[in-house]
Amino acid sequence: MDAAPVSLAFSTTVGALRLREWRLDPGQPALVMDQFSADEFNLVVDDRADVHVNSKDGRFYLGWFPLGRPGAGGEGWRIAVTGTAKKPGYHMSFDPETPADIVAAVVARVLETSRRV
User: Fold this and answer.
1) CA-to-CA distance for 35 and 76, rounded, in angstroms?
2) Which of 49, 71, 107, 114 is the most buried (most CB within 10 A)?
3) pLDDT by residue (tens digit) across 27-52?
4) Residues 79, 35: Cα–Cα separation, whole Å
5) For residue range 69-95, what is the model confidence (pLDDT) as tens digits?
6) Is the dihedral of CA 49, 63, 76, 115 positive or negative?
7) What DSSP letter does each residue of 19-59 carry, written as one string?
8) How far apart are CA 67 and CA 29, in angstroms?
9) CB neighbours (10 Å) of residue 97?
10) What is the rounded distance in angstroms from the CA atom of residue 49 to the CA atom of residue 17?
11) Contact call for residues 44 and 50 (beta carbons, < 8 A)
């Protein structure tokens, strides 16, 4: 009995190789910022026009740096959630050209995973 040869190569068809258009502009940052209410979050716009949002409990932070975060090498968005004594927090960042609707989707998911205690 002969076994079929195992192929480790990527297999596709010519039709599957069609070109796609990808969104490559930063879009509207309001898609991100409109997710925050003054009841639960503080918003500060600094002298560079960078926007900082943090939760009233101080555990969530979002920074938007349209010209790049100073000293951070091209960071345009920063999201951070502070950990607890038992669990570490996390952070993520996106460059200034990341489409705002992608950042908005990430922020929406982070906010969905939070709960009041």
Assistant:
1) 18
2) 107
3) 899 999 999 999 999 999 999 999 99
4) 14
5) 888 788 999 999 999 999 999 999 999
6) negative
7) ------S---THHHHTT--TTTEEEEE-TTS-EEEEETTS-
8) 13
9) 11
10) 42
11) no
Question: d(Cα 109, Cα 35) in Å, to the nearest integer?
Answer: 11
Distance CA 45, CA 53 (A): 9
Instruction: Write the burial class of residue 49 (CB in 10 Å: 0-12 exposed, 13-18 middle, 19+ buried).
Output: exposed
Tokens 């069609």 correspond to 18
Q: How many CB atoms lie within 10 A of CB 9?
A: 5
The mean of the pLDDT values for the chain is: 89
Strand partners, 78: 63, 93
Closest CA to 76 of 27, 41, 40: 27
Single-letter residue type at 21: E
pTM: 0.79
How far is Cα 28 from Cα 99, in angstroms, rounded to an integer? 8
